[in-house]
Amino acid sequence: MQTSPIEVYSEIGTLKKVLIHKPGKELENLMPEYIDRLLFDDIPYLNIVRKEHDTFKEILQQNGIETVYVTDLVTQSLQDKEVKEKFIKDYICEAGIYNKPQYEIIKGYFKSMSTKEMVDKMIEGIRKSEICCKTQRKLIDYLDNCYPFLIDPIPNLYFTRDPFSCIGNSVSINAMSTNTRRRETLFAKYIFKYHPQYSNVPLVYTRKSEPSIEGGDILVLSPSVIAVGISQRTTPKAIERFSENILKSNMGFKKVIAIDIPKTRSFMHLDTVFTMVDKDKFTIHPNIKNNLKVLVIELCDGKLSIDEENLNLENVLKEHLHLDKVTLIKCGGGNIVDASREQWNDGSNTFAIAPGKVVAYDRNYVTNKIMRENGIKVITIPSSELSRGRGGPRCMTMPLLRQSG
């Protein structure tokens, strides 16, 4: 019988409840001149991206999955007046507003809105043209006059997988590697501190921890084994700290498998090149199969023990997940052109909603065909605009409740 509001001991167990964020006006505050700063390569068309996301949500609901929005949970966490005041203060400070007159004007701007409107605006960002700040100007105001925002938008929030991770009955509020994404975890902090349903969930990592770890690198492979990517955004030191906290908890996890992946944008997180689609089947980008360094982290006499595996990834998975065989389904079928194109559009980033049943982007038709040939039921979603954010269906979801795989 479920007693915790968080229960995730599997990547593939039948999904019961998931957290998502419907993209909003924050995407219309993307500009070509500043998209690198905001970690985008292109600008999605908002009207279409919202329709595609609605289709995604409807498919989840048609499969008996309860969907909840980040903005709703944050709003429900801010019902107490003092908590809301503190949240506004924290948000403005983390947005880099240190000029007191500006701070007071922005604070008043937020307080003039309903809580839900305020949360939406915080995600959207604030253009300078929205607020006339009649304040004493500093030298930096004159030098930075062309930048159009008082507060940057938070356009990456629709990738809810990254800011925090549900593991067992606990949550890791992740320390993000870039300034652009750190405000996302402020929302998680208030949800897991003040939301009436989630305030007592134990934390195994906090947003102020150093160094960085992100949710796209964390995969719960079984009730005893977690995989974590050593990636562009998750450091070895963070994995050690995270592993110690997880393995010393009473949730039953025995091993953390650390997988060293290329440190490039197209291989941003482990789940962009490797996802679990069934008990013994995984999607994988063909470029990471060879010469992959894999380390197994366990507790020995209360201290971390780290051993390098000399086996290839397939045999590592067989050994530690106690499987007779493992099938690695290559993105793009292993064809260098198809694999590169579909990897760019997250062909390996599938989202399992039950064993052998996944959601994938429709545009990755080569990989989807090969998954079907390997007995996987693939439900496709439209993705012409969603994919422009460089994240797939797994990136867009944070499971809250799953049955065991």
Key words describing this protein structure:
five-stranded mixed beta sheet; globular; 11 helices; 405 residues; L-arginine/glycine Amidinotransferase, Chain A; alpha/beta
| Poorly predicted regions | none
**Mean of pLDDT:** 92
Beta content: 15-25%
Secondary structure tally: strands? 19
- 3D shape: globular
Describe this structure in words.
It contains eleven helices and 19 strands. The chain is of the alpha/beta class and 405 residues long. The longest helix is centred in the N-terminal third of the chain and has 17 residues, at 46-62. The two termini are 16 Å apart. The mean pLDDT is 92.
Q: How is this structure best summarized?
A:
This protein is 30% helix and 21% strand. With 405 residues, it is an alpha/beta fold. The longest helix is centred in the first third of the chain and has 17 residues.
Show the helix and strand layout:
Layout: E1 15-20, H1 46-62, E2 66-69, H2 70-77, H3 81-94, H4 100-111, H5 115-124, E3 126-127, H6 139-143, E4 149-151, E5 164-167, E6 170-173, H7 179-194, E7 203-205, E8 218-220, E9 225-230, H8 236-247, E10 255-260, E11 274-278, E12 281-284, E13 294-300, E14 303-308, H9 313-321, E15 327-330, H10 336-344, E16 351-354, E17 357-361, H11 365-373, E18 377-381, E19 398-402
Helix pairs in contact: 2-5, 2-7, 3-4, 3-7
